Amino acid sequence: MVNPGICRRCPNCKGVHNDRVDGERVSRISVDCSLLDGGTLLISEEVPKDCPYILEHMLLVEHTFDLHEGTEEEFKEQADASEL
Q1: Where are the domains of the chain?
Q2: Residue 73, phi then psi, degrees to nearest 5
Q3: Pairing assessment for the beta strands 25-33 and 39-42 based on DSSP bridges
Q4: 70 has a pLDDT exceeding 80
Q5: pTM above 0.90, yes or no
Q6: Minimal CA–CA distance to 9: which of 47, 69, 42, 52?
């Protein structure tokens, strides 16, 4: 999984963005990575194999647990459940 906090330190990081919508899927965090040909990583994806911080991403995967990817309806259901 991608940890945006680690990506921000990487010289291959071209930016971290919030609230990206791709069709019906919504990712609260995405990362532009120069290791991918103009590609963007969502937090649920694996980092490129040639990432200089791949070990840190693997070791700190629990820190991305609260970052969720899903539909707007899933986010609303989560918010409603947390208010109880």
Answers
A1: 4-82
A2: -65, -40
A3: antiparallel
A4: no
A5: no
A6: 52
User: Is residue 55 scored above 90 in pLDDT?
Assistant: no
The token duo for 25 is 């899927």
Q: Is 13 helix (H, G, I), strand (E, B) or coil?
A: strand
Calculate what percentage of the chain has a pLDDT beyond 70. 69
Strand positions, DSSP E, the chain: 13-22, 25-33, 39-42, 69-70
How many angstroms separate the Cα of 2 from the Cα of each of 8, 28, 73?
Answer: 11, 12, 23
Identity of the amino acid at 38 = G
Does residue 83 carry a pLDDT above 90? no
Q: How far apart are CA 10 and CA 53, in angstroms?
A: 8
First-to-final CA distance of the chain: 30
